[in-house]
Specification:
By secondary structure, the protein is of the alpha/beta class. It has a six-stranded parallel β-sheet with strand order 2-1-3-4-5-6, with helices on both faces. It has a six-stranded parallel β-sheet with strand order 9-8-7-10-11-12, with helices on both faces. Strand 8, helix 9 and strand 9 form a beta-alpha-beta unit. Helix 1 packs across helix 15 and helix 7 crosses helix 10. The radius of gyration is 21 Å and the shape is globular. The model has no long low-confidence stretch (mean pLDDT 91).
Length: 373
């Protein structure tokens, strides 16, 4: 029987989609095509917009509410069964129909909701595909712990232990790392200095890559002010991302400081990370995995409550990151401290390298293909 792969995600933020696309790359490397499906594309249009904008608004403007939701749902006792919910189950019929028509041999989910759907639908015994669930943060929220999935792929040994403690069979859980684009593991054979020349970046300056996407304009202004006030021969590459505030707004915050270069999004992000000395970013699961894969230490901006707090704690435990906030010049102080000490920077790079799992996507693809019904 021909192998046919379906990859499921929900595009609340970029992380779950990027993990699915990384797996798509890994399967393609083995000459196996995989169809990637966004749950939001199969929901009724009003609900799709509510889900998409609602999460973004909560984590930006209502962090206290999001923290309460995260902790409340994580401490509950009932099984999370969205397909069986009277008020929610009907929303997923189109996705169910699409999967049923595809004759897929393997289905892999990179979002807790689509993973729970797979578990619910398996109980109904209407499909025989091998199922996989990929945890995309460095903590397993209770919603990820749905029994019935054939294989669970988690970021670390710590999360593997959480899953097993939550009732998942030991033999079904692998600590593979979070899947990231193969561009973070593939070597181009180009040296760091050659790469900087190619990107038009100075060879003799410290290079700090800053990801400000997801920050409000006032918080971004504080961030850029910290960069301006950091002395030294330093080049700051600041990505404003795809969300507001946009590139033009952020560029106006430079106040003429030529050390700061602003850009939106870039398809050269793997190269930018490979040539940087330090990353400044919120601790998203994918961003952390990308930076660790290439040995890039991180200064951690204040995390979103819940999953990002767990991600930040993981970096701190493994000594590959330093946490700070944006008030009172704290970021400036941390930047000066790290960049002025080659010993500290080298130690953090070594910690990042030893912790990273650049082959995660390939490993997950191989393990999934080895699963048999």
């Amino acid at each position: 029987m021909k192998t046919q792969i379906a990859l499921l995600y929900a595009s609340w933020g970029w992380g779950h989609k990027k993990a699915a696309l990384a797996l798509q790359e890994a399967f393609a490397e083995q000459n196996i095509s995989a169809d990637a499906f966004d749950l939001l594309d199969f929901l009724p249009t009003p609900l799709s917009k509510i889900y998409s904008s609602g999460y973004s608004s909560l984590v930006r403007y209502g962090r206290f509410i999001w923290s309460w939701i995260y902790e409340t749902t994580n401490n509950g006792r009932t099984t999370y069964s969205p397909a069986k919910s009277l008020w929610q189950g009907w929303q997923f019929r189109k996705l169910k129909q699409r999967l049923a028509s595809g004759e897929y041999t393997h289905i892999v989910s990179t979002h807790f909701l689509t993973s729970a759907l797979l578990a619910d639908w398996k109980e109904e015994q209407w499909w025989k595909s091998v199922s996989g669930s990929v945890v995309t943060d460095y903590h397993a929220h209770r919603y990820w712990m749905r029994r019935g999935i054939d294989a669970y792929f988690v970021p670390s040994d710590e999360v593997r232990s959480e899953m097993i403690s939550g009732g998942i069979e030991t033999s079904r859980v692998w600590a593979t790392g979070i899947p990231i684009s193969l561009n973070f593991s593939n070597s181009s054979g180009i040296s760091r200095s050659q790469l900087r020349n190619e990107l038009g970046l100075p060879i003799d300056e410290k290079l700090v890559l800053v990801l400000s996407s997801g920050l409000s304009l006032p918080r971004t202004a504080i961030l850029v002010r910290n960069l301006r006030e950091t002395p030294g021969k330093i080049r700051f590459l600041v990505s404003s991302g795809k969300d507001a505030p946009d590139q033009h707004q952020v560029n106006n915050l430079r106040n003429g400081d030529d050390r700061i270069q602003i850009f939106g999004i870039s398809d050269r992000m793997p190269d930018l990370m490979k040539t940087a000395d330090l990353l400044v970013s919120k601790p998203g699961g994918i961003v952390i995995s990308e930076s660790l894969a290439i040995g890039l230490p991180q200064i951690i901006l204040p995390p979103i409550p819940g999953q990002e707090e767990a991600n930040a704690a993981f970096l701190l435990r493994h000594k590959a990151g330093i946490s700070t906030d944006l008030q009172n010049g704290n970021l400036k102080g941390v930047l000066e401290d790290v960049l002025s000490s080659s010993e500290k920077l080298t130690s953090m790079k070594q910690a990042a390298t030893s912790t990273g799992k650049p082959e995660a996507a390939r490993t997950i693809a191989r393990l999934m293909l080895n699963q048999k019904k």
